[in-house]
Design brief:
- By secondary structure, this protein is of the alpha+beta class.
- The chain is about 55% helix and about 20% strand.
- It has 15 helices and 14 strands.
- Helix 2 runs antiparallel to helix 11 and helix 4 crosses helix 9.
- It is elongated and about 100 Å long.
- The relative contact order is 0.19.
């Protein structure tokens, strides 16, 4: 029997027996729906972690030299924290040796930081803000674009002028009805002049704002309230390419191990953090979630396969006389076998297609409620359709073989 003819007969049976076909589709539809939804949510979370969470906190092809990792995704034990606290700090005197070791074309920046500065203006209520005293190519590495105003000038960096670039939250909350550029902002009681407003950066996890910050020159008075004298929070390095970044990291590691007088067998007592190292734990979790997202829907597909097999067995019993007539008119065993196999596969394929649509809707609903990004993985669509066809074929083998083995004379006696 031609394949298209077998599909036509299968569609005819689906149209004639609508209720039975619906119940046949349910198991496959639910299994594929959860496959698409779970994989889409996991892919969306992965994109979010890579582009928003780490991507906005660290620059492209860049790494950070810190006393200990700034981004700890996973379980940081008390013992690990105690080891972190025993490490020597990153200091001003480390900058020149690190900078001299960098390959040509590398950018660098240094920063101190505090998350509990009190910011005040005469135009709005005071609020807690994050503040950084910086030097070098900080704005370029962090890709801090301007909404309006200007960046801190080189001479202001050199002299430690009391000027700041502020985030959008500062503009909206402390200068609600006026342009902050050129106006006074007090940080822990010290006066600063706003010279620029950064472009909006959004938030992390829907609640952690990336726009509630101020940036001032390293030598400005802000440094005294953000870090102990001579201590740096971070040295940032950005390379022209990934290969250059690897070389730069090894050079910086060599310099710092020498400065900290570490023997070859001793581990680093500093952190060189990249986006990949920050996401290492997440990648592990993502692998487990993806596997779970594939395995758990298989339960629904197994149930769907059992339902399809039972309904196809009932269909064979109900259509015994039809099978006898077809065999008496010359239909071969393989024609009967292919008819029922195609019918079973067609049913489950329709269920898979419906499951893909419902999976999209479920993932979108989750994204709308949670505020998290969802991203449909193209491979999951192909996997859903392939699973639908496979479940139908596997579930239809036994009923189809029973139909193909029926004796035509005995079949014709059936009423």
């Amino acid at each position: 029997m031609p394949f298209l003819e077998a599909v036509r007969l299968a569609l005819t049976q689906i149209r004639v027996q609508k209720l039975k076909s619906f119940f046949t589709l349910v198991g496959v539809t639910i299994g594929v729906m959860f496959l698409i939804a779970i994989v889409s949510i996991v892919e969306g979370m992965s994109t979010y972690m890579e582009e928003d969470f780490v991507g906005k906190l660290m620059g492209v092809n860049s790494f950070e030299l810190r006393r200990f990792p700034n981004i700890n995704i996973g379980n940081t034990t008390d013992e690990m924290w105690r080891e972190y606290m025993r490490r020597p700090p990153i200091e001003d005197v480390d900058l020149d040796p690190v900078r001299e070791a960098l390959p040509p074309g590398s950018r660098w920046a240094i920063a101190t930081g505090s998350r509990d500065l009190r910011a005040e203006s005469k135009y709005g209520p005071s609020r807690q803000v994050s503040g950084s005293a910086v030097d070098g190519d900080y704005f370029a590495i962090k890709k801090l674009d301007l909404d309006h105003g200007r960046l801190i000038a080189p001479q202001e960096f050199e002299s430690g002028a009391p000027v700041v670039v502020v985030g959008q939250d500062i503009k909206e909350k402390l200068f609600p009805d006026v342009d902050p550029v050129g106006r006074e902002l007090r940080l822990n009681g010290l006066p600063y002049r706003v010279v620029g407003v950064a472009a909006k950066r959004g938030s992390l996890f829907g609640s952690m704002s990336l726009d509630n910050f101020i940036v001032a020159p390293l030598n400005s008075p802000l440094r005294r309230v953000t870090q102990p004298r001579g201590v740096l929070n971070v040295i940032m390095v950005q390379s022209p390419s990934g290969e250059d970044m690897t070389e730069a990291m090894e050079r910086v590691r060599t310099v710092m191990r020498s400065r900290h007088k570490l023997r070859p067998a001793q581990p680093d007592n500093f952190a060189l953090q990249t986006s990949e190292s920050a996401l290492a734990f997440w990648d592990k979790i993502k692998g487990y979630l993806t596997i779970a997202g594939v395995i758990l829907p298989l339960v629904g597909l197994v149930v769907g396969a059992i339902v399809i097999m039972n309904i196809m067995l009932v269909a064979v019993a109900e259509r015994t006389r039809e099978i006898g007539i077809r065999k008496s008119l010359g239909a071969r065993r393989r024609d009967i076998l292919s008819q029922f196999l195609v019918e079973s596969a067609t049913l489950s394929t329709f269920g898979a297609i419906a499951g893909i649509g419902l999976g999209f809707a479920l993932a979108a609903a989750f994204g709308g409620v949670s505020g998290m990004r969802v991203s449909v993985a193209p491979w999951s669509i192909g996997a859903g359709v392939l699973l639908g066809i496979s479940v139908g074929m596997v579930a239809g083998i036994y009923p189809a073989s029973r139909a193909a083995r029926l004796d035509p004379i005995e079949a014709l006696r059936q009423e």
